[in-house]
Amino acid sequence: MPSALPRVHAEFLERVRNAVASDERFNALLIGGSYIHGGLDPHSDLDFVIIVEDDSYAEVMASRMDFAGALADLVSAFTGEHVGEPRLLICLYGPPLLHVDLKFVLASDLDHQIEQRAVLFARDPAAIERRVQAGRVEWPNLPSEWFEARAWIWLHYAATKLARGELYEAIGMLGFFREQVLGPLLCRRAGRNQRGVRRVEALGLDEEGKMAATVARHDPGSVRDAIAAAIDSYLDLRADDPGVKPTRGMPGLLHAFIDDAGPSRRGAAAARLT
């Protein structure tokens, strides 16, 4: 955990700790993310986990937006279904602006954790600490087969948008591909948990610039080159697991599609008009 927090983070942490301690529906307050992994800076989020008493959980889930608002200076908040976590409330506070995650869980949820969080407050500190320490900690890293099943479909999608002249859509898919495939595989190569493209630059995970080559300009030739670079980068990273079964016909089929298709004239004209 950090030896010293930025002032804004430290003040907000105390605000949350006091709010949890004064509400009998809550059993404990934990924190994860950069606070425990290192690298917390003025641009970092605060990732809180609030342990709720079992008999209060339904009430808390129904009124959690009120709890977030009572912390003062709430700009906006929404729930985390888009990341498969409906227990999560994603909040923006300010000024100064600060991203804060509030996840409301039961003590039994600590039996399976993605990271071993620090305890900031607990009504029974020893009991909560024992539960945190005893819980199974496992980051949801994905196997090679998961990437192989998706990589070529996603890259083909990018290629079809290039062929149609929908360059923004193709560029967006390349960003998605970096987040979902190349970033996690770069982390795997470095012996780290698969965390998308988080801190790729700071950790020096792309020193050869292979992933950087997948960043395209709004130009058909640039997008074509970026897709080719994404193919090459994926093949290089896939080779770290010689046991993965390659998809039939790939990458040859995709290269042939890109060579044969090219940006359609109608699509290119439409792109110029938008």
Descriptive report:
- With 274 residues, the protein is of the alpha/beta class.
- Strand 3 (74-80) and strand 4 (85-93) form a beta hairpin.
- The strands form 2 sheets. The protein has a 6-stranded mixed sheet with strand order 3-4-5-2-1-7, with helices on both faces.
- The protein has helices at 7-21, 34-37, 57-70, 125-134, 144-164, 167-189, 220-238, 252-261, 265-273, and strands at residues 26-32, 46-52, 74-80, 85-93, 98-106, 112-113, 118-122, 136-137.
SSE arrangement:
Layout: H1 7-21, E1 26-32, H2 34-37, E2 46-52, H3 57-70, E3 74-80, E4 85-93, E5 98-106, E6 112-113, E7 118-122, H4 125-134, E8 136-137, H5 144-164, H6 167-189, H7 220-238, H8 252-261, H9 265-273
Parallel strand pairs: 2-5, 6-8
Antiparallel strand pairs: 1-2, 1-7, 3-4, 4-5
Protein name: Nucleotidyltransferase domain-containing protein
InterPro entries: NT_sf
What's the total number of strands?
8
* Radius of gyration from CA coordinates: 23 Å
What is the topology, as strand order, of the major beta sheet? 3-4-5-2-1-7
Distance between the termini: 48 Å
Which regions have little confidence, pLDDT < 50, spanning 5+ residues?
Answer: 264-274
Key features of this structure:
274 residues, alpha/beta, Beta Polymerase, domain 2, Four Helix Bundle (Hemerythrin (Met), subunit A), 2 domains, 6-stranded mixed beta sheet, two-stranded parallel sheet, 9 helices, 8 strands, 18% strand, elongated, Nucleotidyltransferase domain-containing protein, NT_sf
